[in-house]
Structures are given as structure tokens and as C-alpha cells.
Input
Amino acid sequence: MGRLSRAELQEHNRARVLDAARNEFTERGFPGAKVDAIAGRAGLTRGAVYSNFPGKRALYFAVLADLAERDHEPPHPEPPHAEPGRTAPEALGALARAWAGELPLVDADTGGRHGSPRLGRDLMSEVLSEERIRRPFAQLMKLDAILLGLALEELRPPDAPPARLVRTAEAVLTTLHGASQMADAAPGFIEPFNVVSACERLAGLDLRDTWPPPHLPYIPRARPADEPWSPPPATDAVRGTPARLADDGVVAILGLHRLEAAEEAVRAAPPGATVTAVLVTGEPAELLPLARLAVAGLCGCLRRAFPPSAWPRLQVVYDASGALARAAGVPAVSDGTEAAVRIEGGRIVARADGRGACHAAAATEDATRSGHAHREGSRPS
Output
């Protein structure tokens, strides 16, 4: 074997650290795990561990995220009974069965989500430990609810009136996450049939959900543009396939404090437009693995429970390096970033920045017409 390049060696060492950390966290739990022990298991120095991960919690989130994505990597082999639902109750029942199938239902030290319940049982305590973790996690739960709500809306009967179902999705996720916590805290307490039955019935609950109109005086105006659009390749975390970034539509650059704004782009975009939420953060080494974990946990089950025709049209992409944000003309990002561009014909034809940017870029028509006019006028006769 030839000598590894620097990038290949770094990737190789990262994989060794993750494998060692998974074993350490499984055996000792998060509180008892030691970075020195992880380094020893990996055959590396403590400094080599920290060169790949800024701390033990970042490493913990990365281990859980890798396992969640691996467990739900498409195509996923399905048991014979796990067919996608064709109605909202059927789909929610299938979603709950997929979720409950990964819980430790009898012995908290065998089986369970993320490969071992002991491995994942300290997740919530780490989320609760600091506001800088809690706030992004809350927004990630909002994003999960938006994705699930959009999928439920696709299963409405043809003669049903339009209705927002994000609140229903929030109730379902509350039930499922509560089941996860109880399965860890009180093994044997959870009865899977009851969880499935409750989620099925939530489909028929009228929660008076509506989409509030934006506060127009506070929405920034989209600015016409005529710029090249050459995004780097990326993966859509919702489908587990290459993201369709060249499609006409809206690309929203969202910090982890502004994820709920993705719904504004979806609701305002014209039918058929592709909407992509590009997730960015000021702390990618620690917080993007948390985002990957939250989205993979839901979307892996969603892909098994909903037919492809009902998968939400919202794409989710992680931008750890900031390359996609820079391609959209956003050179610096933080957890509070909200910026959006409108893509047509492979070019950026409008852009908006600040709170309300997603709605502005998605809803704008004058900007795109102006952009087209500018291009037409600039062509030589």
C-alpha cells in the first residue's frame, strides 16, 4: 500500500477515533468515558484525538450521528410488515413501529437505539447541560416537525381542504421522544402497541393548525441579482441521495438558531420549486453532528413509513466547511444566519438577508422578472 496523503491519513485517524470512542462510550457511558482511554484504544495520542474533535461531547455527538446515519442508510432492508402508509394514520403507525423497534423495551443494557441504549442514554443530559446546546436542539426539533408535517400534508385525501399539519407532527414527535426517554429510564414500562396506536390516532386530531401570514413590514425585500450558481456537491439528508441544488427554487442558508424559517421558504415558494435548507453554525465540529443525529433519527424512520411521493419537498444539507454558503454569496456564517437565494436557470436571480429572508426570496416575483429583464437587456443584439 502506498503512503497515505495527509487528508487520507486524517480521515483514517478520525475513523479510528470514532470506533474507539464508540466502544468507550458503550462500556462506560458518557460521564465515565475518558479521552485518554479513547486515544489509547485508537492507538493515537491525546493530541491526535483533539486534532479531530474539540472535546469529548463533540466526539459523543459524532459517534451517535454516524451510527444513526449508518442504521438508516438507504436502501434500508425492511421487515415484511413495514410497508409505507398510504394514509396519514397508516404512515404514522408505520413511523411509530419503526421508532419503537429501536427502543430498549425490556432490558436497558441490551438492544436499543444507536446500537446500544447505554451509548445513547446520556444524550439528553448533554443537551440540557448548556444553553448553547439546548437552543440549537430546540430548533432541530422544529425542523423535524416541519419535515414530518409536510409529509403528512402530502397524504391528505384529494377532496380534503388544505391544512397545515406541523402541530400534529409536533404531538407525534413528543410522543415518540417521550417513549424513548421512558424506555431508557424505566425498562419494561413502554408497550409498543400503545405508542403505535396513539400516533395513529393523532392523525385525526384537529389542533386548529394554520400558517400565520408573515409580518410584511418586517420582511426584507429580495434584491434582484444575476450571478453564477456553482454549488459544490452535497447530500440531501432527508432522502440520503445527492441534493438537487441546480434545480429552480430557493436555497436557504440557516444557522442552527433559525431553522424554523425553512418553513417560510416552503410555504412561499411556487408549486414545483425545490427548497433546500443549508444548515450552518459557528461551531460545526460539535453542533453539526447533533444536527445530523436529530435529522437522521427522524428521516430514517420517515423513509420507511411514508411513500416516496409523500416525502417532503424540503431538502436538508449540512455545510460544515461553509463552501455552499460562500457559493450563495454568504462569506461568514453563525448560528443566527438567515439568508436565501432564488435559483432560476442555473443562476442566482434574487437574494435576501436577515430575518424573513426565506420568505422574501421564495415569494419574490418582481425580483426574478427584473433579473431576467436585466439579462435580456445585457445581451448583445
